[in-house]
Fold this sequence. Notes:
Elements: H1 3-15, H2 17-24, H3 30-36, H4 43-54, H5 59-66, E1 71-73, E2 76-78
Antiparallel strand pairs: 1-2
Amino acid sequence: xxxEDLTKxxxxxxxxxxxxxxxxxxxxxxxxxxxxxGYSITKAELIRAHAAxxxxxxDEQLNNMAGGGAYTCGWHKIS
Length: 79
């Protein structure tokens, strides 16, 4: 469990379509998928990374979320 593993996992997801597909699947367990790929991360680390990502969204993207729209968060769609 480390920030380094989280960073490497997120980079791997950006480059690996098979990881992206696994993470997009209904009920996907991101921590288990990361572990299977050789990374030790926690749900808390993922939540912090997601929160940091949300802070980078534009006003338009935030309005879409608030209005029931959907946006893509790195590797999966959030609606």
